[in-house]
Amino acid sequence: MNIMLFHSAYGLRPAVRTAADRLRAAGHEVWTPDLFEGRTFDTVEEGMACKDEIGKDELLRRAVLAAAPYSERGLVYAGFSLGASIAQTLALGDDKARGLLLLHGTSDIAPNATADELPVQLHVAEPDPFETDDWLSSWYLQMGRTGADVEIYRYAGAGHLYTDPDLPDHDAEAAEATWRVALGFLDDLGAQPAR
Questions:
Q1: The domain 2-191 is classified under which CATH number: 3.30.365.10, 3.40.640.10, 1.10.3660.10, 3.40.50.1820?
Q2: b/e for 117-136, b at 16 or more Cβ within 10 A?
């Protein structure tokens, strides 16, 4: 599969490159655009301040420009937290998208969004201060209305960005379980014809 993998508000940290290498080792082609242009952060507060400074529209513009050269191939959009929300926005706007892999995050859904049978997999901590139960219930229903085929996996006791081994949120067991399921999801996508 061709995967466009977006980083979190911490920036393009080593964990994102490690995840991309893991996906490549499983036979996938992966791109990791740097939406923060080289800046990385040690705290989520610093990262969110950078996100706000750049602005949502500019971040989406950068993401679209990064994905555009490859979108004809039929991309799987993926991302971590903030990057997941960006991946979701791009996938719902790309009728050639092959799938959507969300790690630790979701986003608002435009009322007119459509995603006819788009395979979507979400992995989140339980509880997660950024992805509350009420929000996820509403998000799931809205994604269903778009026509997406959604699976949600929740990991009790894990911190928000639990797949990043360099952050306090890290949960090795939940991270391994996430990657095992996610790699299976990508294998299944590879066996399906393009939409």
A1: 3.40.50.1820
A2: ebbbbbbbbeebebbeeeeb
